[in-house]
Amino acid sequence: MKPYETYQYLEGTPMTERDKLEIDSKFWNEGKWKNFILPFLPEDCGELTLIDMGCNAGLFLSMAEEKGFGQVIGVDSNEEAVKRGLVWRDTDKGAYQIRHGDESCDLPMADYTILANVHYYIPIEKWLAYLDKLQYKTRYCIIVTTDRHIRQRCWPKADLESIRRYFRGWEEVGFIDELPLEGNHARRLWGLCFKSSIERVPIDSLDCGNHVQDRFYAELDAGKDFKRTRYYRILKPYRKDWSEEKLDNWVMALMALYEDVKVNRLTSPLIVEGNLILDGNHRHAMMKHLGHKSILVRKI
């Protein structure tokens, strides 16, 4: 079995004998991306976030960034693979993130989450808990699976029937059947794409109810003390039953959220009814100020 930390071949790095056999394969490395993942991805993805769970050294992250995704994040539990990937990314001057962790880590919202030959390495209890969380963290989930059979009952199954059973409640929007078993290290692979109830909508289509935050984030970016901003002056009489300390702490927490949104965009969807925002006005204003034209929502 190929050592996990060298599972992906990275261009410009030493090539193993196994890499030489797989380099032009339809089932490994770039071949897997082109045949089982890329067909599900849209042409215009500049606003979109892609997360690769079980990214290994980040080969698919580089390809997603090259395709034009605005935010690209990979997660892997193998520390050596992550270290290798970070060196390669920095040498190649990539901007994507690689994080050491597993399916339990807290991640931003995604438009596409990739699980390429990964899910059957997650214990079934953790896999189902991850799926419960994922349906409100991503719009689409792309699964690449194989005919791999794991005998232990406590591990997820890989067959198509089981995959579709795990994703009941999602809409299956794409399927790639196995390719002819030709070439070195050929193997049976399938690609499936499932859609959740999360949607991406134009940011200007939503009604935030008021505009009291107008100019607040621009004033912060300009270095203005928060107590001298227009928003603070509006809040102070509105929150007259609050102490000054409580008001200041509330505004500073909002400022911390703004810094997080700059880095992670959204970590949960806005909740909307029709076009009215029920929860997420502040994040909507932040994202709009930062220049985003669309945003992820959960409609009720």
CATH homologous superfamily grouping of the largest domain:
Vaccinia Virus protein VP39
| Tally of structural domains | 2
Strand content: 15-25%
**Sheet with the most strands: spatial strand order:** 3-2-1-4-5-7-6
Q: What order do the SSEs take from the amino end to the carboxyl end, as H and E?
A: HHEHEHEEHEHEEEHHHEEHE
Tell me what the CATH architecture of the largest domain is. 3-Layer(aba) Sandwich
The biggest sheet amounts to: 7 strands, mixed
**What separation lies between the terminal Cα atoms?**
47 Å
CATH hierarchy class name of the largest domain: Alpha Beta
Please estimate the helix content. 25-40%
Beta strands, count = 11
CATH topology of the largest domain: Rossmann fold
Oligomeric state of shown chains: single chain
Poorly predicted sequence stretches spanning 5 or more consecutive residues = none
Give the structural class: alpha/beta
Can you lay out the helices and strands and say which pair or pack?
Elements: H1 17-22, H2 29-37, E1 49-53, H3 59-67, E2 71-76, H4 79-91, E3 97-100, E4 110-116, H5 124-134, E5 138-146, H6 160-166, E6 171-176, E7 189-195, E8 199-202, H7 216-221, H8 230-238, H9 244-264, E9 270-273, E10 276-279, H10 281-289, E11 294-299
Parallel strand pairs: 1-2, 1-4, 2-3, 4-5, 9-11
Antiparallel strand pairs: 5-7, 6-7, 8-11, 9-10
